Amino acid sequence: MFDVGAPEFIVLVVLAIIFFGPEKIPEMARKGAKIVHFLRGVANQATSQLKDELGPEYAHLTAADLNPKTFIQKHLFDDLQEELKEIKDDLAEIKGDLEADAADLKSIGSEIDADLAADGATATVAAAATPTRKVPFDDEAT
Fold first, then answer.
1. Closest Cα to residue 1, out of 51, 39, 55?
2. How far apart are CA 11 and CA 20, in angstroms?
3. Confidence of residue 129 (pLDDT cuts 50, 70, 90)
4. Alpha-helix residue ranges (DSSP H) falling in the chain
5. pTM above 0.85, yes or no
6. What is the domain range of residue 2?
7. Chain-wide mean pLDDT for the chain?
8. Which of 62, 91, 110 is the last residue of a domain?
9. Domain co-membership, 55 together with 12
10. Which whole-number Å values give the CA distances from 120 to 21, 91, 107, 113, in the listed order?
């Protein structure tokens, strides 16, 4: 919340000891805890009052939801999130089908290669499978 790290906290403790003295530190800590407790109560009370006034559709409202970016994402894009989830599920299903088909094609290809190797016709089939293209040549153009 306040981004107070270890070095800053140590400096604050040293300053507190210097300003208030070691005998008043426990009393100050108790007062600080009471203040924090009071402020949390006020914040929780304000949040619950806001939820009550906004109605049941905002029953799950949190303090982070009051950030405009989060608010828009939560309330305007909920329908889109459901549709995107359905699309992702459909795409995952299609991907699975394509992977299964690719595995089938690989196994069929390896069976054909094995059959051709057994027949000794690998070289002739490979030569027949790759057509030789003759590039047209125009003598007048050069």
1. 39
2. 14
3. low
4. 6-20, 25-54, 68-76, 78-119, 122-129
5. no
6. 1-62
7. 81
8. 62
9. yes
10. 98, 42, 20, 10
